[in-house]
Every structure is written in C-alpha cells, then in structure tokens.
Amino acid sequence: MINVGIAGASGYTGVELVKLISNHPKTKLCAVTSNSYKGKSLTDIFPSMRGFENLIFESLDIQSSARKIDIMFLALPHKISMQYVPALLEQGIKVVDLSADYRFTDAAAYESAYQEHTSKHLLKESVYGLCEIYRDSIKSANLVGNPGCYPTSILIPLLPLLKEDLIQTDGIISDSKSGVSGAGRSLSLAAHFCEANESFTAYKVGSHRHTPEINEILSIHSQQKMAITFVPHLLPLTRGMLSTIYVQTKKGVFEDKIRKTLNAYYAEEPFVSILDKNMYPAISHVKGTNRCDIGFYFDENTKKIIIISTIDNLVKGAAGQAVQNMNIMFGFDETAGLNAFQGPL
Amino acid sequence: MINVGIAGASGYTGVELVKLISNHPKTKLCAVTSNSYKGKSLTDIFPSMRGFENLIFESLDIQSSARKIDIMFLALPHKISMQYVPALLEQGIKVVDLSADYRFTDAAAYESAYQEHTSKHLLKESVYGLCEIYRDSIKSANLVGNPGCYPTSILIPLLPLLKEDLIQTDGIISDSKSGVSGAGRSLSLAAHFCEANESFTAYKVGSHRHTPEINEILSIHSQQKMAITFVPHLLPLTRGMLSTIYVQTKKGVFEDKIRKTLNAYYAEEPFVSILDKNMYPAISHVKGTNRCDIGFYFDENTKKIIIISTIDNLVKGAAGQAVQNMNIMFGFDETAGLNAFQGPL
Amino acid sequence: MINVGIAGASGYTGVELVKLISNHPKTKLCAVTSNSYKGKSLTDIFPSMRGFENLIFESLDIQSSARKIDIMFLALPHKISMQYVPALLEQGIKVVDLSADYRFTDAAAYESAYQEHTSKHLLKESVYGLCEIYRDSIKSANLVGNPGCYPTSILIPLLPLLKEDLIQTDGIISDSKSGVSGAGRSLSLAAHFCEANESFTAYKVGSHRHTPEINEILSIHSQQKMAITFVPHLLPLTRGMLSTIYVQTKKGVFEDKIRKTLNAYYAEEPFVSILDKNMYPAISHVKGTNRCDIGFYFDENTKKIIIISTIDNLVKGAAGQAVQNMNIMFGFDETAGLNAFQGPL
Amino acid sequence: MINVGIAGASGYTGVELVKLISNHPKTKLCAVTSNSYKGKSLTDIFPSMRGFENLIFESLDIQSSARKIDIMFLALPHKISMQYVPALLEQGIKVVDLSADYRFTDAAAYESAYQEHTSKHLLKESVYGLCEIYRDSIKSANLVGNPGCYPTSILIPLLPLLKEDLIQTDGIISDSKSGVSGAGRSLSLAAHFCEANESFTAYKVGSHRHTPEINEILSIHSQQKMAITFVPHLLPLTRGMLSTIYVQTKKGVFEDKIRKTLNAYYAEEPFVSILDKNMYPAISHVKGTNRCDIGFYFDENTKKIIIISTIDNLVKGAAGQAVQNMNIMFGFDETAGLNAFQGPL
After folding, report:
1. What's the whole-model pTM score?
2. E strands along B172-281, which residues?
C-alpha cells in the first residue's frame, strides 16, 4: 500500500486520476490539491463523485506532502509543474508529471514549443512514460513525463515499425481527432456547448505543441531527425481520440510483415490490441479503458499503410497511462486498477 | 462463487449484465444466449468487450442450463420470458426476469397492458425487485420481477412518503425523460441518429405500459387504488433517466417533515441519496452507477413538492438493480460488483 | 423599406436577428452594436455569416442611431436595456426590447424578480409582445417587451383556455425543457460542452425569473391572482424548447371542447398549429422556424389535459417573435421574413 | 417558371430538395415520389414540413410525369436511377440524377465499383455536375450526374491546383469526415443513435465507392491516371462534411502561388470561399448552406499543403448542388433558391 497525492485534481484529468487511484488495490489517496477549489470537497465540485465528501482540496504544499505521500501525480498546466517537481524529488517523492514539462530530452525543443525550462538538469533523469516502449527505464525512474494524448495514439503503432525499419521516415502524416475533454475544464468559446456541438474543425494546423514531442521520440528511435505532418481536429463528443496515420512502407515490405511485426511487438501487452484484417477501431470500443486499439489497411498500389489508432484521451492518453507508470515504478501488476471498462455504451 | 447465465445478452441491458457479472467477486459467468447472434462471440458483436472472445452466444436451452447455473437473468422481451421461466424454476434455477412478465401481482393488470399471462400462478410467488423496498421478500425469492426503469425512478422517492401518509394519493404527476438506450438496440426510426439527435419529444402520452406497473405498487402501499399521470419523453443522449415528480402534500406537512422522512428511510441505503436543500441531481451524476439521486423543492404557496429523481436507466433501471437483487437472493454484500462508477465525464 | 438597428448583435439572439432582418423584404440593416467586439465585422465573429464582412460592430450611440434608424431591437441583458430605451423613444425610434425590462405591467413584480426599474413610467405604454394575443395593442406600440422563451411556449396554449374559462386557475404545472443556446453565448460551466453533453438536469427550481412573467400575464387574463408551478430543465441540444403542461379542466369540460377552442383560436394564425389527436410535437419539427406546435392529451379519469408545446427558443422564443412584432408595428405582412424553415434535419 | 418532380423525396436528400425547390423563385414543385410512403403526404412523414399537407407521395410513373414536368431530380439509390433515366430523357424531361449512375464517363470504372450499367450510351452525354468546373457543359446538358458528397469536398480545392500543374499527382491523401445523414434515412446499426453517438470511426477503408469517382475526374484533368488515398470517417453529428487533404507541391511552388491560384479561380464563385491565411473552416460555418469553405496551410519544410475543405453534405454535397445544376441548365441566376443560410447555430 502506497500513499498517493494528486495535484490539480479538479480538472478532468485530475478527477479521472482520483477515480482510478481510489479503485486501485495498492494505493491510498492521501491528498488532492486545487487552487480554484481549496477548502471544498471533491464531491462538492463533482457531484458524481459520491463518497468523496471528506476529501478536501488543499493547496499544494511540498513540506506537508513530504510527510505523507510516496508518489505525486501532477495534473497541472505546463510551466506550473516545473515549479514543484524539483522540490518534490528532493523530498524523496516520486513524480508522474502529466504536463509537458518533463517529456522532452532536448531542452531546446521544449523551449521552442513552450517556454524557458527552469530545471533542465532533470530532463536527463526524467523518463518518457510511454509504458509499452520505456517500461525498463520507468521501473527505476523517480520522475516520469507522462506522454501527451496525441503522441500516445501515434507513437504506439509507429515505433515498432520504425524500429524494425519497415517504414519510410519522411512523409508520415497523422490526421488526429480528439473529444472536447482534451481541452480541459477551463472555459473557452471553442468548448462552449453551442459552438462545439454539431460541428467539427481542424485547429492549430501546423503549430500544435504535441508535434515536437512526437518528433523527438520518433527521431530517437530512428536515429535520424524526423518531422511528421500532424493535424489535430476537434470532435463533438466528450471523450476519446482517433488518429488516422498514413505511412509509406519501405521497398519489399508488405502487409504480412507489418502485421507480424505489430502482433509480435504487442502480443503480451494487456492494453494494446492489433485488430484483425478489415477490422477498424472506434472510439466507443475503448472509451473508459486504458486500451489502445489499432487497425490498419495496406494499399497494394501505393504501398502505403493506413493505421487507425484509438484511445480514451483521459485514460491511456492521460490518467490511465499515469497509473500504469506508477504500477511499473512500484513493481505492481501493471494492470492493477486499470481493468475497469465502460462496455459498449 | 455461483454460476450465472444471461439470456438475451446481445441487447444493451444484456451486455450491461455481462459487464457487471464479469466484474463481480462472487459470480462466474457460464452462459450467454442470443437468438440473433448464436455462435458468435460476445467480442465479435461488441468490440468494446475485449476479453470475451471465448464467450459464445448459445440458444437458450433449459436442460443444458440446469446442469451448470444457479441463477439466470432474463434480458428478454416480455412474453418471451414467460416461455422459459416456469421450466427454469422447475430445474431449481433462480431467476431474475428483466421483462415485465413477473412484475405484477394482479394478472388482469398485466393482461390489460401486455397480453395473456401463461403462468399466472407464478405471480403469487414472484417478488417485485425494487430492492430498497422489497428486500426482505427478495431474500427468499426464487423469482424476481426486476422493475421497469421509469417505475424505479418514480417509486423510490414516492413510497416512503406514501407509507408515512405525507402526500395526497391523487394528482401525482411524473414528467419523466429517458435516454435513447431505453429503447434498446433494435432498429427504429425513433432511435435513428438523425431523428433523435438535436430533438426531444414526449411519446406514448397516456399509454405507456409502465403506468399500470407504477400504479399497482403505489396502490399496494397506500391500500387504495391510485393512478398517477405519467408522461415519458425521449432525451438526445445515450444513457440516463430523470423524473420530475409533482406531488401535493397533506395538510400540515412541511419541507422539514419530508426531508426527515426521506433521509431516515434511505440513510443506510448505499445506492439512494437524498440531496441537500437547493441541490438537484443531473443525469451525469449517476451515469454508469447503480445510484438513485433525489433532490426536492417544497413550494410554500402551493404545498407541492417537486421531486427530481435520476438514475442510469441501464444500471439501477435494469442490469444494476438485477445484480443487486441477485446479491440479496444469495446473501452477498448488496453492493458487491456494483461499486464501479464513471466519474464526471 | 425601413431602417433597422440591432443592439447586442454578437449574442446568439442578436445574430439570429441579423439573419432574419437581412433576409426580410422590407428592412435594411443599418447598424449592429456589440460592446465585446466593437470594430470587428460580423463575419469576423461568426464565420458562418458570410457576406457580412462590411457590417462592423459599433458601440451603442443613441444620437447617431437617431439619424438613421426607424426601429431598434435590443438583444441586451436586462438592466442594460433600461439604460437606452427612454432615449431611443425620445428620438422617435421604435423599440422591441428582448430583455425582461419592459415585459411587466407591474413594476413591483419586475423589481422583486430583477432589480429597481429606472423607467417605470414606460411600463404603462410598453406592450407585451406575444403577437397572437396582443396583436391589436402591438400595432400602435412604440415599445414592445418581447416575451421570454419559456413564457411564449406556455402562454400560447394556456391563454385561450383561460379566456374561455375551461381550466382551473390553480394547480397548473409546466415542466419545461430548453436547449443550451437559451443560456446565451457567455461562458459558464453549465454550458461547457463536457458538462452539458450527455446530461440533463433541472435548474432554478422554484426560482426562475420567467415565473413572475408567466404569472402576471395569466393573472391579467383570468382576472385573478394566478401562480403556476414552473420547472425549467437543460437539454443536451443547441436549439429548441418543449413545455409539458399539466392543467385541470373545469367541470363539464371535455376533450372536444378543448380541441374546438384551441382550433378556433389559432385557426388563422400562421405560426401556431394545433396537432391532431394522438400527435405530439418534437423540437425537430419547429427548429429554425417561428412556429409553436401544440399537441394535447385529455385524461378521461382525472380530467386533466396534458399539453405539449414546442418552439425554437431563438426564433418564436426570441428573435423571430421580435421580427413578428416589428411586422405588426409597421403594418407589414406578419409572416414577412419569417417563412424560412430548416426541414427535418 | 418550370415544373419540377422529385423522385425519392422521402429520403433525407429528397426532402432537402423539396425544401429548396419549394423556396425557389422560378420553380413549381409538381410531383414527389416515394415507394415506401405512396399515398401519404409529405407532412405526414416529415412533420417539420408544415404546409405540404397536400403534397402526396406518388409512385414514379414516367408517362404521367411527362405531361407535367420539365425536370426530374432523382434522389434514388444507384441502379434504381438507371431504370428510369432513359425513359425520362425520351419524354424530353431533363434529369439531375443524384445517384452514382451517370457520374462516370468510363463504364468499366462504374461497373467495377457498382454493377452492370444498363444504359452505357448515356454516359457520353451525361455531364458531371460539379458546377464550378463543368458549368459550360451543364448549360446544354439534358442529363447531369450530380457529384458525390465526398468528391465535391475534395475536387473543388484540388482541380485548380491540378490544372495549373502546381501539385504532384501521386501521394494525394484525403482524410474525410461525414455526418450521419450521409448514410441516409434507412435503418442500420451504424446509424443507431446509441452506436453513433459519442463515437467516431473510419469505415470502408480502401474500398469506398467514391474513390473511383474522384480518381476519374482527377485523371481527366491531369491527363494521367491518378489514384488518391481516401479514408472516410463517421462523425457523431447530423449534417456536414470536412475533408483534410494532404498534397505535395511541385518544385518551386510556394504558398503564395497556391493562394493566388485558388483565389483567382474562385474569386467570382458565389459558393466557394478561400479563407485567409491561418483561418480554417468548421462544419458549423457552412451547415445549411450551399457553400464550400476552404482553408489551407503550407508546410515550409515538407512543401506539403494541407487543405481543409468543408461543405454541408446534404446541400453542396447533394440537394443544393443539384439545384445549382438546374439553375445552370435553365439559365436562371445560379444562386436562385440557394441563398438561405442557417447562421452560427
């Protein structure tokens, strides 16, 4: 049994963490923080969270945290995370940071997309928390940078193909679509019901901050500088994400090789499924789960593969993967607390 | 550990039962039946149900069932249930029937709303499975008629007030609203996306079959013939139900008395919550849970109370309550397998 | 051809007015005002409004307005309207005010629900703009208080029955449901996509400000103090409103009399339809139109009638009725500019 | 004034045609046909279509049609259209066919995607009704094959770039997303509210029948065999379509050249808009209109352009473009009857 704190627990990702941690067999939820709702109970703010009437939002206080918790999840905006992480680590508290602050190895890449990094030295020891890929490093990590939702949906199918040298490194396109919860609980016109409902649009075309994150990881694995074309879109639904990824195979690589590689790579993974030929995933198939479902089509004429990858942006794309990272860090069964599923509706 | 069968497991209620039973600590799911999908696996039909690749839909066969199961849930249409229940009981299998076939005590009331009843003798021994009210009878029941979704949302708040003689028995109105999943998975124009989306309407005004079910239970508890006004409406959302109930209080009954009565009645109930003054429930607060949340407003001028009651039509309104009934019948912890919740989104 | 100004044109009601006025055969749109978007074009703010690139939001300036416009629509919040109306009238500009400021005859009723009224003397000359009922007074009015959306959906079916003395004046209940656009374009958690989507709830139970508005009009027509029970709910859809109204008929009044009365009263009305027996309206039937569709059920046992009334909250419930009022004030064909319709989808 | 017939008027496209034609200043709607609803009025089937109580669905009878109509719109499934078109033309009736039957020049291409063509000789004289591109041929056409919705959204932005030789002809990808109305009013599990709502998925990956239609038109204009990668997806909304198109520019072609070309090509077109730099269209911007809005991003690094193109699948993607074709065929103002718009909501 370990003691857990969740900072930023009044956002959609934070409350998803509360839900997962409170159902987890090996954890005790000891502290939740929120600047906006300090002093209120979790149930006050989220009436669906019955039974949390005594869990009161505190402000984030490193000293008091140190006395009681083994791991802190930070569901804070980037830049804010950096203000707390060094002190948490010094207190011997392990950290899974869900912001972008510790996802990058290359500080310059981070700084060009975000802002000045105030604890660059930690980028060397932080581990990118894409569990299926970085499991071994995560085991001994004290600081995990939990991947972005879009990167998760894109990197899981691409990395095995890249490692096996089956695909061209240039010309990769990911046309990705996310539900509105990806924009968080903060108010904005784009997330106003009447503006998002019955509409659909691309946004931040050519400038989304997840692009350098994706590119850095791809580049590391291919050992060359890679730059994908990434276009995010906003779906009129609450939770879920689907990426349609277009990739050119290398000469002599055919459908069978692709399938065998993906199957082999993920055969033992509890949360990644490679669908059978002619089967494609839907957001409804993974909603409320920590799964990533992947289907693909091989075009005989163009030798392109079209990969369809889907996750729940709040689970495998955020809180679920964060818990999976914790499970790895503490040697728990990797699926502990992550077996719930929502069913077809 | 008991062995469970689910008949009609390819409908929305049936698959919700599969989900609950497979997460239940005391049950083993041994058989699922479906006429439409015989021979297919559950995962074939519901790709979100990963891990059920080996659970194959059978046709309903009483003899083979008898050898392996302790309890059968029937998520079948009314009339079809009646064809199987007598034989199941004879085989010593306990039954929770989710159709209307065994909800009535009065065969004539059933027959006027549905059709001829072919096992009237069983109506005497079947118990109406509204758990919080009929718990004692359910304990020893072999056959439970699981309540309708609308009746559940209406009877839970009304029955304590009626028993304590706080409300007038005439003039009760329930203006109820249900999500589209209440209509099931069968195709219909009313459930066609383009027809239900961005619309809202009343249906079966003055003729919904849940009316006599509600009236019978109310009449039994008030020991007089009662007839409420009930108007169901179709909401453009998938799951959830909310009833707004208008009731005249008896002379001398004020807000405080109502609140004390409801609080006292449901204080120890794990699945029923009486909200504080000025708090009203929303469908999102109970979605994915077995809860019934109740808020009310007392109008000083008219001495009316306006009760807002909300449930998830597929859980407390169907599969969840069915499992709760099973828990009572077998002496399990009543909340076993029913603690999952979906969180705010 | 008359010159029209629209104040508050950057809200949902305001832009609906822009749409209607710009398609109207007898009007020229001369000015639009917006505090938030001064200097921007209408198309900048609403990209769907192609062709309005040169219509620039101004601040509201009575002097400059006076030189060019014949009528001003005020789609402003209550209290703000009062600041401008007296001066507009002094300049000889006719006004249709869509706020609540000039809907009341009784200043005290207004003040108890809203705030101090700063131009009480105008309440005597302002006309309540429920077109089908107050047409004669509207013809010569200089100031029209455009009705609230909920009152419109409730009063249209009730007033004829009240006038003909067919219904009991006490015990009337309206269970009303509105789309999210009724809450306007301002940001709020209740209108955040993830909070409203897949949910449904009652709000302002017992305290909605449309209640005194409804009560005042009912009281005037029944010549006695009336107070209805009114419960508004929030639907997960963008536009449309449906009220389910429960009324006790007077002794000796049966279905036939009700139907004849409503049919006779609205036979010649282009925007009000009384549906045939067993037909009930849906929001999708009136979306995008200025219509009010009404169906009803007479309960033989209780002698109650259940009236289902539906409008588009932005059209007949706001901008459309405002234009209808203008048509009456200027002697235009009452349907001018209001014949567009959206079709089934 | 011309006389118009609409075959298949009880589908979503058919009823959209009824709406447009009945609002058109130069047309009289003389006949509507429907196999399913013969003898019923249009208002019976679509209660939102008030005022069409006397428009009765007939069965399609060429002889009786010949006496009264100048043009017939066929909103019938492919294969069914072919059964009527030759006889209609023989009777001197002009035809706009909204099925795929007369969209192809190459009968073999049609037959490989659909079925045997029973009036191949007409493919030479039928004109592909993409108005902005084939206007001159449409003027004198007796038979127009109205384009598919996906092809419309893709070809409008691509054809000018292809004609001016600015883009590579291989490697074009269109990731397209459509609302559920694109699947029509026929019942299917995919269009069941509970299955489509809160989900999103790709479908017919690598096999959608609009692919050969797109390829044929592209090939004609580039004078070489082209084959794009096209992946359609299903959006959880009723109407609207958005295509995200990825194209490699030719050497030496930069953003400015692309912009100038598209602007020049569509400068005078009433229904096509090229958005300013950094502006991207949303489905809500064109819903209910005959417009195609196009935004694009030029990636300096890869020299790719990302084009975002959006239409209302029922209007510019079907009924609206059909009416636009009629306007061209009869020499009417091309925008006649097509100026309505829905506004931001």
Report:
1. 0.97
2. 173-178, 201-202, 229-234, 241-248, 272-274
